[in-house]
Design goal:
With about 140 residues, the protein is an alpha+beta fold. The chain is built from two helices and five strands. A hairpin with a 2-residue loop joins strand 1 and strand 2. Helix 1 packs antiparallel against helix 2. The longest helix is centred in the first third of the chain and has 33 residues.
Length: about 140
């Protein structure tokens, strides 16, 4: 067996696995969005943090969100950071949380809910297509 065939077979397999995991995560996120409780949170602060890399130091901001459930107030800080801040203080942000676990919160938006599945699709699709294209061409199908 040629090395190219082995490598493209591995690409095809890894791509297929990533695409399947992406689909599972996509449908899980959609179920979370549909069955979750939707409410509004208020941005009460933009927490600064420093990020250092090869190009120097930069200031990034994470929103601190406050929301109420049954008269109790909770806070949520997403894992995303940006510069400039993604939200202004006092801005209302739509969120969704799990009815049985009000600490499992996500911002309602394309990236807030589907980030994981999009990352898996972004890596899996090119691998799958390269591997599939190789075998389709090798066996004269295209």
């Amino acid at each position: 067996m040629k090395m190219a065939t082995i490598l493209h077979g591995i690409l095809l397999l890894i791509g297929a696995v990533l695409l399947l995991l992406g689909l599972v995560l996509f449908f899980s996120a959609r179920k979370f969005r549909d069955k979750g409780v939707k409410t509004q949170a208020t941005v009460i602060d933009n927490i600064p943090s420093r990020s250092t890399d090869d190009h120097g130091t930069s200031q990034l901001y994470t929103p601190l969100l406050e929301y109420s459930i049954g008269g109790k107030t909770f806070t949520y800080t997403p894992n995303s950071r940006s510069n400039p801040p993604a939200y202004d203080i006092g801005e209302k942000v739509p969120i969704v949380y799990r009815p049985d676990n009000h600490h499992d919160v996500r911002i309602v938006g394309y990236w807030g809910i589907y980030l994981g599945s999009n990352i898996l699709f972004a890596f899996g699709l090119p691998m799958f297509l390269i591997g599939l294209g190789y075998f389709l061409f090798k066996y004269g199908i295209i």
